[in-house]
Amino acid sequence: MANQKEKLKVIPLGGLGEIGKNITIFEYKNDIIIVDCGLSFPDEEMYGIDLVIPDFTYLIKNKNRVKSVVLTHGHEDHIGALPYLLKEVNVPVYGTRLTLGLLENKLKEHGLLRSSDLRIVKPKDEVQMGGFKVEFIRTGHSIADSVALAIKCEVATVVHTGDFKIDYTPIDEQVIDLHRFAELGQEGITLLIADSTNVERPGYSVSESTVGRTFFDLFQGVDSRIIVATFASNVHRVQQVINAAVHYGRKVAVSGRSMVNVVSVASELGYLNIPEGTLIDVNDIGKYAESEIVIITTGSQGEPMSGLSRMSISEHRKIEISKGDLVIISATPIPGNEKTVAQVINQLFKLGANVVYEKLAEVHVSGHACQEELKLIHTLVKPKFFLPAHGEFRMLMQHAMLAQNLGMPKENTFVSETGAILEIDHESAKITGRIPAGQTLVDGLGVGDVGNIVLRDRKHLSQDGLIIVVVTLNKDKGGVVAGPDIISRGFVYVRESGDLIEEAKSVVKDALSKCQEKQITEWSTIKSAIRDSLRQFLYEQTKRKPMILPIIMEV
Amino acid sequence: MANQKEKLKVIPLGGLGEIGKNITIFEYKNDIIIVDCGLSFPDEEMYGIDLVIPDFTYLIKNKNRVKSVVLTHGHEDHIGALPYLLKEVNVPVYGTRLTLGLLENKLKEHGLLRSSDLRIVKPKDEVQMGGFKVEFIRTGHSIADSVALAIKCEVATVVHTGDFKIDYTPIDEQVIDLHRFAELGQEGITLLIADSTNVERPGYSVSESTVGRTFFDLFQGVDSRIIVATFASNVHRVQQVINAAVHYGRKVAVSGRSMVNVVSVASELGYLNIPEGTLIDVNDIGKYAESEIVIITTGSQGEPMSGLSRMSISEHRKIEISKGDLVIISATPIPGNEKTVAQVINQLFKLGANVVYEKLAEVHVSGHACQEELKLIHTLVKPKFFLPAHGEFRMLMQHAMLAQNLGMPKENTFVSETGAILEIDHESAKITGRIPAGQTLVDGLGVGDVGNIVLRDRKHLSQDGLIIVVVTLNKDKGGVVAGPDIISRGFVYVRESGDLIEEAKSVVKDALSKCQEKQITEWSTIKSAIRDSLRQFLYEQTKRKPMILPIIMEV
């Protein structure tokens, strides 16, 4: 009999109360397994930051207990931070073929491919990892080869949906394994962890196959080139573009680094079915008539360096938008990207393209389950406890309420947060504490070296710019030897503000004289005097508060 | 007979190819009138900018010819830049009562109220302004008292819709004057200028009155406080909150500077019907039971300093969110605001409030005409030429296509841009040139003193921060007297990067030695040497490119 006191610990290290960097820790006795290890993108306050990854402090501290990483699918918010973890905690990584195929590219970039231990699994596989047995269950999502997990240990069985939707007519004909969810429900599930992304949407998500029909409609009778932008990782979407191209006798060229990568990995592994002779090199598009060309590219989110963005400002090296080009943006802007996507569309129209986007046609469907799908999974799995995951706080709340509306007692639902330890067994569940959790900022080569102070300075500099005051003082007598000189950046354009800067110099001179009169020699006091008088003067003159940096040199 | 060669010039000075700062110039012979004078809000690349206003160069140059400003309604994107114009070009301003009432507040803040000449008009009024006769026509919109214009001169009649929707059941029972649009169509219209905001939406906009029904439903049976956030200027929406409050026996407190302003102006002028004893001071809410309170506030867009935002982070001085409060956000996030609104909702949920927002209930309707409404207006007015306005480029394109689908020849539709001169009479229309147009940035007290160089610097500083290198050189011998010192802000947190900065100093020292060896004394050359060597060193070490400012002092 299991030790009554030892329970399963479930600790989300990211993805709760936020969008992105999904990662969950499962800890039983001495063993830890990690499910997913994603990144998120910086928000607008994180000036200059490239990526955000989870805080791995707890995992690094307990690295000897970590048995494995298990991946549900190959999206960035589930695998993107893995290279950073593997550098510190090198353990076997389990995932389906496409997931690991996409991960390989990433590990190669970080120089980690040779040292990594990647283990391919298939749906229905069961793998023992220390005190855990993990079963992989086929689901559907906006990337192929995604799985849910059943995670078993002595005292509990957890179903973790990963990201999923219920698509009865998926492109690869691999329907989500509802039978297995039903069986697990019969066997008895302690805890359900489920995707909350679309919990605010009533009804059902639309099948991916509807987008294919839209492509067939849009391609029909078109004489011009067709350019389709979508998420590189959406292999099913890419397949449907190819299907429509083949149907209408067009060749397909692929553009954009990540799109080229994914198409290469996915077709190598058999996830894309591309008839011989369909794919052409993007350098060869000039050899064909416009009516014979489809170009698949990246940039559906208006990302500045992506294929479509470059085309929209005529800066793409290989593809120039010409009058009449049909451009299809097969995506919905992710919250925060609305304006950049709109800008790309406007630019493309200005270049004479005919742009079809989500407001005008059914060119995109979501990859996440809506309310009715969630109800189905809850009902099949009939867990004792529920931990909504993968969503902002309000979505977790709505998801908990959905579970309660299906009959689960409120105290069995846990609207939790990143870092909180949920201890469970068949009888009970309880938040018992917290581990260090949060975000680690990646800026260039630096991981975690940009913190709040640096970000606060960047914000301040971005708002009102900078004034530097340099003065050289005599070491012994404290008198001014050179300066004060004033240099400004991002404050006002100096040629138009000559007088203001000259007046500012007088203000500094006055402050320095006063210091000398009072025989103040303490540098920090002199600096404060300069800063205070200048701040007041500039605010009165401009209602702006630039960063003021007094620098004293001593000779 | 009119001089055959003299045509009407229609020049949009803002609002085309962008959202906001709507303003159109009408010029015939020696006379100019201006329709609307709005501002827009800075985009994310405009670091530190408060407001964006139109470029008034042309109007200032021709100030003696300007007869008047005519306002269609009181939204910021139609009146917000007027104080800046009136400072330069003080002419009579025509508008309906509420529009001018809201403008008065604004002029007061700028100290312009006494010097301004405001002239109240009513729908159906006709006013002669130089060579123009302007007629005001009632429309409907998300602010009360909005009008369209018929602008007549010897050679042309223009219908300008302003912002409008067709609401058959408006709150104030003042239905859009479709009869007048029909009559004008019969009389013969040269040019239609129309609102393109919702041209991408099929069907009809929903009546404002549906929101009132939602309020009645949501208020029913609620025991807690109710807090409704909406646009201050949406007087009809505010009226409906008050109606629901009165129905359920609740008092109404108003919070948020602009909401207090608008409620005061609108009720003074009779645009709000508030039963005696309904309004209470926000300081008195503690005197009533929670079930007796409705609070109307600002912040439906998540604006950082607004009422609801402050409540959501427990920083509101008078209102503290408590468990069970019902918060209704009666608005849709304007593109770009999605993330901040989501954050406010998440925070409110965390404080225990029950938040109802647009994804969950019909708590908002648009104030702009959708496709079927636009078709109706085009059909009634049956203009010879069409200039789509008030929209980004893609919307103007869609709107031109809508007109073409209704039978207008393509060459009669003008997808134009800010600054382009459209010359028209009954026979012909043609873009004949451009006037200076664009955006003037307002930052604090500065109007137009922040330009591209300042913004570029702010952006650079925000991305990777700043490194300042100070060195004091001997005037005669060029040798180093003090320094080099290195100061960084927004680059890396210095306590964690001590070595990096020390190494950077060595790099600078090496650069200085080399300069001295080569007997280089030109400051600019020495600065370049410092900058180049340091840039390369820091990029290799961090993959970041901070702004590098070498400063040389001479003694």
Automatic annotation (TrEMBL), chains A, B:
Recorded GO MF terms: 5'-3' RNA exonuclease activity; RNA binding; RNA endonuclease activity; zinc ion binding
GO cellular component labels: cytoplasm
EC number: 3.1.-.-
Binding site for Zn(2+) 1: 73, 75, 77, 141, 163
HAMAP family registered for this protein in UniProt: RNase_J_bact
Function, in words: An RNase that has 5'-3' exonuclease and possibly endonuclease activity. Involved in maturation of rRNA and in some organisms also mRNA maturation and/or decay.
Subunit description: Homodimer, may be a subunit of the RNA degradosome.
Protein name per its UniProtKB record: Ribonuclease J
